[in-house]
Amino acid sequence: MIDIKNTINHHKQLLIFTLLNYIDKFIAFSLPLVVLYISKNQQIYNDIEYIFSIASIAVVFFDLGINTYYFYGFKESDSRIEYIEKVREYFSVLLMFYEIIGLLILPIFFFYKPTSFIFIFVYIRLLYLLYVSFSASYYRLKDKPSFVYWLSIPVNLLSLVALYLFRNISNSVLFGFFAPQFILLFVGSYFYIKNKVKIDFKKLITFLTETLKYSWPILINISMIAYINNFGKIYAYNYLSSNDMYQISYVLRISLIVQMAHSSIIAFYSKAIYEDKNYEINKEIFKKYSLLIFLAVVLFFCFILGLNLTKIVKPISINLASFLIVLYTIVWCYRSYFEMYFGKYNKNKIVLLFSIISTTVYTGYIVFFGIGNFLQLSILMLLTALISFISLFLYLRFIILKKT
Hints:
mainly alpha, 0% strand
């Protein structure tokens, strides 16, 4: 018999979580567009997208596999509550180590070459991503997935306030933009020091060794995905025109609407998928996932049409390249969804193999032919995503889940 009250409450929690996720991600993804609207400076917008892209790739390696291993270790642990808190302590030590290294090295780097100030913002951004990403995993395992937004939403709102305050000082826009992220890291470290948590460093090293042993295929795989997702903007920033960089960054940014739908349901159901004893793809979760992705695609086109019609920011063309980027994003989302099952059954090395193949195709094309415009980039991104997705899905369905 179905417990109607619990069912309604469960869907209510999913709705609240999804709503908060959209509010958080909407503010986050719109911030660069707000910068563009306030400053009317296309170069500052390009700088921010460049910083975001480098940080998104680098953060994979700074994580050391903790986020990836967290759920698997939880599943295998005999004392799950203690495990959740102990890993949080380990992560806090690692984050403080990175902060100390940054405080020691980045000022020297800046004074040696002042024009490299942009990499200070890259470092702040990647540590912020690292902190929020771990916090999201922590609260999911605590069955409080919405709690992470008490961290990220205030930071994003403070960034909006800072943008307004620094709107007439063009050289300070980037400092204002990233200051709230730095403050969050500082406050987090302060509370850790205040609580005087004692850490057994031998156990910490043992834990990190376990995370890397489990996660290294995933880390390399994620880095390759991040590389394909972000290298186009990095390449455009350095080798194509400012307008091409703007066009590419703009469409990829709006397409985050689809990825937000993906991250919402993955964040909400990842624990359930890992704990599911059935040796098959959970059909109910998959149906909900597909519905949310469809609605997000519709929202994407409504949003981009609305921005073009209102001309709040510089309009872009809705052309074939834009459609291909949407298709790429959809394929990427489904690939990432099915990839969770490889982690669940500890088959991460297979995922790495498929990523190596697609990344080789991607890099090989750039090396031998280069990227001349937005359309070439969108075709290449979709092609590599399809190669990886089809290979991964067929292996999952006919080899890993062959018992079904």
